[in-house]
Structure formats: structure tokens, C-alpha cells
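We were asked to recover a plausible sequence for a given structure. The inputs and outputs are reproduced exactly as logged, with field labels preserved.

PROBLEM: sequence recovery
POSITIONS: 445
GIVEN STRUCTURE:
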């Protein structure tokens, strides 16, 4: 039996049917092949972690290495080209040269305050301004004190009584002499000099005023009194300072204390006296450390016979000594201080330059003591340390980038697809309509 097939779009009049249908599967097959090729390319070139959620990204792996500096390998030519030299860490006493800024002040043991011990009124001033020089025994001021006048009258009465009683061994004579000595002693306690008391007894009449005199030679560095002013007992009227010797006060860091001791001779340079170096000795080292600055106060005594050194002057103190006990030290140029740590680069036996944190001690003009982190006899980079550190930090940064996903820094990494995960199975080409993998291409009808 013959089957008749009809085509809805067949042209009337028995026109010829379309060309063979074999051309359609071929076009579809070509499109499917291109789509499959694109899918396969995406599958094999995607990142291993692409399918993971954004929250599962390892951000720590993407950051640069936190360790900072890393070991560096430099050839002899490269080291010579950038100026790298080496030095051996030595052990022994370190000649310390400590410098600090000092300020000239008064020698507190040579400052006197003049204060009356009785109430009174200022009748006359002999020293009228601050800074006026005075000598020991010079009059400073004259005061009127009713208490003082009364005490003088009592002295004159006691003297008259002792003269009337006589000097025999009777009780009355002894009491009169005791009363006279008591009156004299009261005036002495009020700083009335003995010669003034003797003059009072000779004159036989009380003086209205009392003159206060300077106990030392120096300069009136403070004046707190005016003519006509009422003063009370104990009021500081003047302060006189002997400037023949002065103090120079400065501060040294805690790490430099090993080079400082009492009695040590030091030198000082003054901006106001160029070329005139002064020598003195350390007379005081503070027993405590200032917590904020980690410094210790040091006091130097200086001779100032010419009075060229004036309180308030600045100076540079040079303290030269030794650290005492042997210490490990390296050149100052070998230490790189970053602000948060100090490090040196140690050369290993294989030539590798390894960074190492160290704790520093006393520092001199050309060397620095290492308290911890380095042993005597080890070789360190002595110059161009900054360039070696830059190379070390660059190596750490590149190592950190190489650890990031997809950042293979090896040759040809840009053209190689990343390897699949360990144990992963390569997926088969997915079945697609019209693309039988085990059947032969359709034949033309």
C-alpha cells in the first residue's frame, strides 16, 4: 500500500517540493557545536572558587603578607652596585658620648631669702630693683617695729638693774645678770647683730628702726617690698643669689644611664658663648624616671667666677664615658628604625640576608649597643640597609600576591587554564537535542 504525504504549504499545480531536508539538520548541528564549544571553554577556564558565594572568599589570602620584611638574596655584584657593606657585631665596652640640652639655673645652696622676724613698716630701701648686686653685710632695708623698740627698752632697763645691783654673788645680782642676758638674746633672735646691741647699750637709748643686711655676696634676684609698706614677720622681702657657681640641668634617656655617674666630668657649649667650652661635674642624678619621656634629670655644677653664665641660658651637655660591662654593638648605620621596631639584616652562611628584630641600648656617634636579638660574631649589613629593606618588602608583597587565587606569577601563567581541583572529575559533554554522540550523522533522504 502506498502512503501519500501531503504538505500544507505545497504550491498548487504540482510545483516541485522544497529541496532535501538534510540541509536543515546540518545547520542546526553547526549551531549546536558552536554552543557546546563555548560551554566547554567556560567550564574549563572558570576559577575553581567561582561557584562559591561571595561570602566564602578568602580575603586573608588576597592581602599582602603581614610579616613585612622577608629574607633577601643578593649576589656580590648586586651588593656592590647598590653600596651594601658588611660588619661583624663586636662585644666589649662601648665608648658612650651622650648629648643633651641643658638649662642654666641658680645653685639652690647659694640662694638666701631675707625675711624680718618682727612686724613693722618699711622706712627705707637700699636695694631698689631686681638684679642689683650686693655684697655680704650691705644694708637691704630699714624697718620700724614697735615690738623691737619695746625689746630695746627692756634691754636698757635690765642693764641699769644689773649695774645697780652690782656683780657680787648674791641672788639679786645673779637674777639681774640673767635678765640682761635674756634681753640681749631676744634681740639676737630677731637678727639684731651683736655690734648693734653693743652700740645700743653704749648709747643708752633705743633705736627707732632696724636695718636688715645681706648675708651673702650676690645679686638680688627677687624683690617683694616697697618703701612705706607694712610687712609681717616671715614675709620674704628679698632673695639674693650667689652666681659664682651655677647649675646646669638636663635630661638623659633611660638607655643612656649606664654612661652617667655622680662626680663625672662633663663639658658644655653655650650658644651665647661660642668657642668657650666650660667644664663641670655631675653633682646629682635623679632617683626616678619621668614616665612620659622615659628620661632622668641630671645636674651639673659649673664655676662662674666671671658671671658670664646667666640663669635661663641654654647649653649642650657632652657626657663622655663607657658603658662599663661589655656589650654587643654594631655600626649605627646597620640598624633600621621603622618607628615601631628596630631591625638589622643578618647574613647567613649561604649568603641570605635575613631581617631580625633587635632591642637597642646605649648609642654613641658611630655605634649602638644591642641588648637582645643579635650575637657577637654575626655579620650584618652595615650600609644601604634601607635599600635592602625595600627589596625585602618587595619580595614579601610579591609573595602575598602569588598566594591570591588566579595570581600565578610563573611564566606562561596568563595562557594556562588553572588546573582542576584535586580529585575532581572532568565532566562529560552534556547531551543536547540533535547531537547524538554515538550515532552516525543523518543521511540524505
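RECOVERED SEQUENCE:
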Amino acid at each position: 500500500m502506498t502512503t501519500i504525504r501531503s504538505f500544507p504549504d505545497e504550491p498548487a499545480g504540482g510545483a516541485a517540493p522544497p529541496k532535501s531536508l538534510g540541509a536543515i539538520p546540518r545547520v542546526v548541528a553547526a549551531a549546536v557545536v558552536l554552543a557546546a564549544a563555548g560551554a566547554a571553554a567556560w567550564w574549563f577556564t572558570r576559577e575553581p572558587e567561582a561557584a562559591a558565594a561571595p561570602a566564602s572568599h578568602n580575603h586573608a589570602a588576597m592581602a599582602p603578607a603581614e610579616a613585612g620584611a622577608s629574607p633577601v638574596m643578593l649576589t656580590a655584584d648586586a651588593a656592590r652596585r647598590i653600596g651594601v657593606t658588611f660588619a661583624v657585631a663586636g662585644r666589649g665596652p662601648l665608648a658612650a658620648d651622650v648629648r643633651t640640652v641643658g638649662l642654666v639655673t641658680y645653685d639652690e645652696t647659694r640662694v638666701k631669702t631675707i625675711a624680718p622676724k618682727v612686724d613693722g613698716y618699711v622706712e627705707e630701701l637700699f636695694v631698689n630693683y631686681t638684679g642689683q648686686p650686693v655684697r655680704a653685710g650691705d644694708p637691704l632695708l630699714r624697718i620700724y617695729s614697735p615690738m623691737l623698740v619695746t625689746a630695746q627698752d627692756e634691754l636698757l632697763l635690765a642693764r641699769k638693774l644689773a649695774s645697780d645691783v652690782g656683780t657680787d654673788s648674791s641672788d639679786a645680782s645673779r637674777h639681774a645678770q640673767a635678765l640682761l642676758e635674756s634681753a640681749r638674746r631676744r634681740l639676737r633672735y630677731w637678727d639684731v647683730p651683736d655690734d648693734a646691741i653693743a652700740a645700743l647699750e653704749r648709747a643708752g637709748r633705743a633705736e627707732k628702726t632696724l636695718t636688715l643686711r645681706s648675708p651673702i655676696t650676690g645679686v638680688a634676684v627677687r624683690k617683694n617690698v616697697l618703701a612705706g609698706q607694712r610687712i609681717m614677720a616671715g614675709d620674704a622681702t628679698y632673695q639674693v643669689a650667689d652666681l659664682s657657681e651655677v647649675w646646669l640641668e638636663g635630661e638623659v634617656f633611660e638607655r643612656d644611664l649606664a654612661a652617667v655617674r655622680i662626680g663625672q666630668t662633663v663639658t658644655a657649649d653655650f650658644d651665647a658663648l661660642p668657642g668657650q667650652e666650660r667644664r663641670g661635674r655631675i653633682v646629682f642624678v635623679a632617683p626616678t624616671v619621668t614616665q612620659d619621656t622615659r628620661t632622668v634629670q641630671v645636674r651639673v655644677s659649673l664655676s662662674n667666677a666671671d658671671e658670664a653664665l646667666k640663669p635661663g641660658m641654654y647649653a649642650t651637655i657632652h657626657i663622655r664615658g663607657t658603658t662599663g660591662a661589655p656589650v654587643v654593638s654594631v655600626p649605627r648605620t646597620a640598624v633600621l628604625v621603622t618607628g615601631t621596631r628596630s631591625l638589622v639584616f643578618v647574613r647567613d652562611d649561604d649568603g641570605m640576608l635575613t631581617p631580625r628584630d633587635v632591642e637597642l641600648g646605649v648609642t654613641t656617634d658611630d655605634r649602638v649597643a644591642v641588648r637582645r636579638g643579635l650575637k657577637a660574631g654575626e655579620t650584618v649589613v652595615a650600609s644601604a640597609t634601607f635599600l635592602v629593606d625595600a627589596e625585602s618588602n618587595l619580595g614579601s608583597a610579591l609573595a602575598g600576591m602569588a598566594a591570591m587565587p588566579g595570581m600565578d606569577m610563573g611564566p606562561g601563567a596568563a595562557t594556562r587554564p588553572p588546573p582542576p581541583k584535586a580529585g575532581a572529575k572532568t565532566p562529560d559533554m552534556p547531551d543536547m537535542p540533535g547531537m547524538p554522540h554515538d550515532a552516525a550523522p543523518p543521511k540524505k533522504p
